[in-house]
Amino acid sequence: MTNKTLAAPQELRYARIHGLAGYRPERVVTNDEVIEFIDSSDEWIQQRSGIVTRHIAAPEESVIDMAEAASRDAITKSGVAPEQIGAVIMATVTHPYQTPAAAPELAFRLGIPDPAALDISAACAGYCYGISMANDMVRAGTVDYVLVIGVEKLSDFTDKYDRGTAFIFGDGAGAAVVGISDFQGIGPTLWGSLGDKRDLITQREPWTGLRGGMEESGRQDALDWPAFVMQGQSVFRWAVYDMVPVAVKAVEAAGITPHDLDAFVPHQANMRITDAMVKALKLPEHVPVARDIAETGNTSAASVPLAMARMLDEGEAPHGGLALQIAFGAGLVYAAQVVVMP
Ligand SMILES: CC(C)(COP(=O)(O)OP(=O)(O)OC[C@H]1O[C@@H](n2cnc3c(N)ncnc32)[C@H](O)[C@@H]1OP(=O)(O)O)[C@@H](O)C(=O)NCCC(=O)NCCS
């Protein structure tokens, strides 16, 4: 073993979210449009999922385009200059290139010079994973500011003929600037994964084993790349029963009680999951609950920042207040933390 001691930061710093913003594509798709391709009804979709509309990106609009729109807004709101940002973490499972990652191109477009830039694949939990990683990077002194984005173009990976998923997903982006602070604005993260449950939400087949949805289904307009498939009921039960204790522990770990919360921002997976969590958590009545799913659908990694940005923009949650955020999805993976809203 060497007798040299490597340089290391001597003190932990504080981190918080300085700016947060969302972007929803222009086109709004109603349930009536969705049910042109599946045996369903507007009433069933609203009752079973709470979804009334979702936003769908234009064919040429990419995850990088959507991430750029949300990031520009978040950076402006944060008051941080692009040059101060030392890392870009982009959470997405719908960037169509395995490599290169989307984050370096996004950083280049935003004029962030030479940051560490990477994509992470943690599905619907990706943004909350990113916030945790950004917090640690800032706390430890690796960088001063990190741009964290959750973005998805799920419409590219949704089989419009699949009753189990066609109505659920939407497109969008949310971005946050995490950076040094004079108080701690991000609580400890409770996170984990259950790899034995990999089949509950997955791509139908690997990129390298394409049978071709088009050929298989015989439909001219079917996807010819792998769509996402989901065992909805099992995911639903897991989310309701197993995520509540995680949420409770995240609040305890932050050193607060549910009465201290100013907002509850769960992953916008299904309105009934949110309702069940609120009940099981015995959330105090004064705590507003994010219900962005009604208009935005389930946007996976983008859902938590989109929902929180809406609550702040509409005055439903107070700037500087405490929010419990929790997200869960394919992997299975999950993450929860209490944050001070920017
Ligand atoms: C997908 C989801 C809305 C389906 O709701 P559900 O209540 O579990 O529905 P089920 O699969 O149990 O089906 C119930 C009935 O509705 C029918 N049904 C299923 N999909 C339907 C649709 N799109 N339209 C109309 N009826 C449908 C089923 O055939 C079944 O009928 P039956 O009772 O006559 O057999 C729900 O399971 C869910 O939201 N799961 C979690 C999804 C999620 O969070 N995913 C992302 C995690 S990140």
From TrEMBL:
Keyword Kinase: no
SUPFAM superfamilies (UniProt xref): Thiolase-like
Domain notes: The last Arg residue of the ACP-binding site is essential for the weak association between ACP/AcpP and FabH.
Active-site residues per Swiss-Prot or TrEMBL entry: C124, H267, N298
Domain of life: Bacteria
Domain Beta-ketoacyl-[acyl-carrier-protein] synthase III C-terminal: 252-339
InterPro entries xref list: ACP_syn_III_C (IPR013747), ACP_syn_III_N (IPR013751), FabH (IPR004655), Thiolase-like (IPR016039)
Entry's Gene Ontology cellular component terms: cytoplasm
Keyword terms: Acyltransferase, Cytoplasm, Fatty acid biosynthesis, Fatty acid metabolism, Lipid biosynthesis, Lipid metabolism, Multifunctional enzyme, Transferase
Family, as annotated: Belongs to the thiolase-like superfamily. FabH family.
Higher taxonomy: Bacteria, Bacillati, Actinomycetota, Actinomycetes, Micrococcales
Protein name per Swiss-Prot or TrEMBL: Beta-ketoacyl-[acyl-carrier-protein] synthase III
HAMAP family per the UniProt record, alphabetical: FabH (MF_01815)
Chief subcellular location: cytoplasm
Gene3D superfamilies per record: 3.40.47.10
A GO molecular-function descriptor: beta-ketoacyl-acyl-carrier-protein synthase III activity
Function: Catalyzes the condensation reaction of fatty acid synthesis by the addition to an acyl acceptor of two carbons from malonyl-ACP. Catalyzes the first condensation reaction which initiates fatty acid synthesis and may therefore play a role in governing the total rate of fatty acid production. Possesses both acetoacetyl-ACP synthase and acetyl transacylase activities. Its substrate specificity determines the biosynthesis of branched-chain and/or straight-chain of fatty acids.
